[in-house]
Design goal:
The structure is a homodimer. By secondary structure, chain A is an alpha+beta fold. Chain A is built from 12 helices and 17 strands.
Chain lengths: 409, 409
């Protein structure tokens, strides 16, 4: 079986869970449109739409490549002839949803991923699935999919661990490049090369509009502490106004913190980790802040188990930071602070759940989270650590493979 | 001035052109939301919305980073306090659009980029700008923006040429790696490294839903000819079902075509070029097909001048391919053929115009196009060439820097 091929039992289980959630939510069918969700529910990312009725067999309607979809997909594949004929095709394949050929159709509620589907594509699809027949609504089911994707199967956890192994090896292989006078970009290019030859697909997929992450963020000294549009604790200076985050052309110097917040995507699954390095030594307050970031991770590890509310872990980290006298520096500085400690990872890097205020939902076994306490010192740099964890039946297990501790060169 | 900083006169000219088009189209204001369009109309990609009235001063409403937006933006910057208060903020800043404080508001037509804006974000924004007041519509203005972005300024052409230079240097620096037994992925990783250290931001931005291009496609022999979801003449085998296009782990062999279709993004602007290489020699029919691809490019060069209809150039290439007896192999094979010869490039890789049937619009000075005739031989490989061109006042000028001709190693 090809690497990255999802076993058909795995797909069946996912479809079953989706159907159970749809019945609960009063949804008659799900129209899957996003390439990542298509991979999740069919095993294939070919271009088309997967139609999953609340009961009965799902079908992947494929525009191209049909040949490749047939080889990859764990659900039935058929050619999508035209968007104009899509309603008729659906009604004929799924009579239970559309009321059969009787012509009498009651209200049909079809859900889709309105959080990522562009507005005009949504409008076009809504028209196509209704086929001009009143009573068919295309509604938002994105929270349903994002919710069920929080729980990873053992196979998915294995993919995330494979990605963690690649990042660990790439970091180790690249550290010899990290010398005084090398630029952030040179070091990042080497890290990316080492991840790429090990199978990184080239970017970490994100769900959020306008968000781009190829391999994370590498920032040194003051450049790491520059605020940015990026909704994270350290955006970075970037390569200019057209790439205003992550790595810059700045030269790395002695005795300043170097934040290496990187990840990769292997077989579709991402890992996200941060280590802090220094050539020489850190000033005492920065070294202390780094030590505090490890303490916050230790505290989070003790709290992370099924039943703990996500916001309780965030609240604990705020308290820890305040206790250390570092409240103003925690997760960004001043008005640029971000309001979370960690986030789900999986097929995308901005998955649920989020360790943040307002997320009162409890952790569940199978969730995978990146926990990333960081402290920002404007003009001086960012220090911190980030590990990813699987929530187990009675606690959590680290998936990150790189050794902890400040990297001193 | 920092690299990638757009001169304020350049931004003013763009705003002026947008306003002229809005007046023509009966649009009262444009709400710019996409990061690429924000960069185009403000010079900054910070998170927020730019509001451009059909007459009067535009304002960039910024969520984060405000400090950075103030430094980067060529238009006025103000803090976006909350989406709930956005209507009141807009009405106060732009009384000419919203009917002043009189309370009597006539119909207001605000356009936005509905081709990329996710459906739920669109709905939230539509509610925010209407503020519950009847008569305010948020409509699709994406074709207006895509249309005006087809015409590049001399500064933009300079950015694209800088990207072309990087690709040419990276290709030259990487060819020593191309030996029998090396994998596609190893060669691609090296090409990407060479582009990255020269300033490639790490991906080539695309406008289409579900489309991902980091650095293009490198495919050898049969792997290049595998059909894919990608709407291009050669998708490639990829790394597995979760990355089912471009580079694979396949080992490159003697006497087979190696398609190197790569690009990069420098200061926000992309270049796109293809060269074909071989270790040893190509079979006669493949070598002939490659020669035909260069002939099609020569023919396109003669046709490309202001006034020529885009579809006429595509039609000419179809005729050339048929005349060579290669109609079935042109731009993909059989049912997987794509129906275009070239496409606009600029801030995104899938820009307008498209050299395809149905695109009867004439070329205009300032347009930049990638022209990519390719021939696919299932089980054997893909051969072809791709150059990018600027349409000048009386013809066209190649922006691609790499020498032409089959690369024989």
């Amino acid at each position: 079986m090809e690497i990255g091929t999802i076993a058909s039992e795995e797909v069946s289980a996912r479809i079953g869970r989706l159907q159970a959630r749809m019945l609960e939510a009063g949804i008659d069918a799900f129209l899957v449109t996003q390439h990542v969700d298509l991979y999740y529910f069919t095993g294939s990312m070919q271009a088309g739409y997967a139609f999953v009725p609340a009961a009965g067999e799902p079908v992947f309607y494929v525009r191209r490549s049909l040949e490749r979809a047939r080889r990859e997909s764990a659900i039935a594949v058929t050619a999508l002839t035209s968007l104009r004929g899509f309603r008729a095709q659906l009604a004929s394949d799924h009579p239970a949803v559309f009321g059969g050929g009787s012509g009498t159709v009651s209200a049909v509620n079809i859900a889709t991923e309105m959080d990522v589907l562009p507005a005009t594509t949504y409008a076009r699809l809504a028209e196509a699935v209704s086929g001009g027949v009143a009573g068919t609504a295309l509604t938002d089911g994105s929270s349903l999919v994002r919710g069920m994707r929080t729980i990873k199967s053992p196979w998915e956890v294995g993919r995330i661990e494979a990605a963690a192994q690649v990042v660990a090896e790439a970091l180790e292989a690249s550290l010899p490049v990290l010398k005084e006078g090398v630029s952030e970009l040179e070091l990042m290019a080497r890290l990316e090369y080492e991840m790429r030859i090990r199978g990184h697909i080239g970017l970490m997929r994100t769900r959020s509009y306008n968000m781009e992450i190829m391999t994370g963020m590498l920032g040194s000294g003051a450049a790491a502490a520059v605020p940015s549009a990026f909704d994270g604790p350290a955006g970075g200076l970037g390569l200019g106004p057209a790439a205003p985050q992550s790595t810059s052309r700045r030269t790395i110097r002695r005795d300043e913190p170097i934040l290496i917040d990187i990840g990769c995507c292997i077989d579709g699954y991402v890992i996200d980790q941060t280590r802090t390095a220094v050539i020489g030594s850190l000033a005492n307050d920065l070294a202390d802040a780094y030590a505090h970031s490890e303490r916050i991770v230790r505290h989070a590890e003790r709290l992370m188990r099924p039943g703990t509310a996500c916001d309780a872990i965030y609240a604990a980290s705020l308290k820890d930071a305040a206790h250390a006298g570092l409240a103003d520096h925690f997760m960004g500085f001043g008005s640029d602070q971000v309001k979370f400690l960690g986030h789900g990872i999986g097929l995308e890097v901005d998955e649920w759940p989020v360790l943040a205020r307002g997320f009162g939902n409890p952790l569940e076994p199978g969730m995978v989270l990146a926990v990333e306490p960081k402290f920002t010192f404007p003009g001086r740099g960012v220090v911190g650590i980030e590990n990813s964890y699987l929530i187990t039946d009675d606690g959590c297990r680290a998936l990150t493979k790189s050794p902890e501790g400040l990297i001193v060169l």
